[in-house]
Amino acid sequence: MKIQKSILIDVPKQELWDITAHDFGNIYKWISGVNRSHGQGEGINGATHGERVCDPSYRGFKRTTERITAYDPNGFRFTYQVVSGLPSFVESASNTWTHETEGDGTRLTMAVAMKVKGIMGALMGGMMKSKMSKILTEALEELKTYAESGGDLHPRKRKAKEKYEKQQKLIA
Question: 170: Cβ–Cβ under 8 A, 6 or more apart, which residues?
């Protein structure tokens, strides 16, 4: 299954690239669906890291590791593959982020390719496609707010961050 979403973000391409690609390991800073993340390993083609580990806030998702499989700083495009943490009925998942200048801003396109397997994959495939479509739309909206404001959080991210911090205080 393939899902593609894009948004126009009113910042120069290099500025957006710095947030999405150079700071790949720190996606938690702006996306509501990730409570914590960090980069690890040696990057390819100038990437800061080769992988990122994410603790998602999405219900039903567990810790994921995403590995950069293609990184083109001249073409402002990178691809990562989820190498651990997928539901058992998902055989593979990757996401390609393409940054293209449009006017004074940047059109960011996310293209997810996901392969499901087995009976559960057949049963859950439609629901997964719908859920992933919503996740991509929200991620792009949250990134737009973060990038255009110079670091302010989208209300969804602010709420998710407050909830996570409250949970952490209860644990401590």
Answer: none
Separation of alpha carbons 50 and 99, rounded Å:
19
Amino acid present at 42: E
**Gap between the Cα atoms of 69 and 94, Å rounded:** 9
Smallest Cα–Cα separation from 75: which of 105, 104, 45? 45
Q: Which residues contact 148 (CB under 8 A, 6 or more apart)?
A: 9, 10, 11
Report pLDDT digits (tens) over 120-159: 878 888 888 998 999 999 999 999 999 999 999 999 999 9
Q: CATH number for the domain including 32?
A: 3.30.530.20
Per-residue pLDDT band for 91 (boundaries 50, 70, 90) equals: very high
Q: E strand or H helix at 113, and its extent?
A: strand 105-116
Contact 142, 30 (CB under 8 A): yes
Strand partners, 156: none
Range of the domain at 157: 2-171
Question: Total structural domains in the chain?
Answer: 1
